[in-house]
Design a protein that fits this description.
The structure is a single chain. The termini are far apart. The protein has one domain. The protein is globular and about 35 Å long. The strands form two sheets. Strands 1-2 form a two-stranded parallel sheet. It has a two-stranded antiparallel sheet with strand order 3-4. The chain is built from four helices and four strands, in the order αβαβαββα. By secondary structure, the protein is of the alpha+beta class.
């Protein structure tokens, strides 16, 4: 839902939302993808991201153009069903896109 909204806003740089599953949790991939349309990636031992990015379960990690984290928003702490939380995350994504465009 948010990806579709972002796509219509015409930000200066494209923003893409992906899910990344923690290594060792592969058995949950099918359930995690059910009814969703964002790309879903599987972390591997060869390509770790959870550890280097200090990810907690249900974190949204916002990356710059070099894949360096520039923000984190946890969806357990802040449900996107709440319009304020939704607007906050969208604002964080927009701010990151604007910062990237200014680089």
């Amino acid at each position: 839902m948010m990806q579709g909204e972002i796509d219509t806003l015409g930000w200066a740089v494209p923003v893409r939302i992906h899910g990344v599953n923690e290594v060792g949790q592969e058995s949950g991939n099918a359930l995690a993808c059910e009814g969703r349309d964002i790309p879903w990636l599987q972390e591997t031992l060869a390509e770790p991201v959870w550890g280097p990015w200090h990810v907690r379960y249900r974190d949204v990690v916002i990356l710059d153009g070099d894949n360096v984290p520039v923000g984190v928003y946890n969806l357990t702490d802040w449900s996107l069903a709440d319009s304020t939380a939704y607007a906050t995350l969208r604002g964080m994504l927009q701010a990151a896109a604007e910062a990237e465009a200014a680089r």
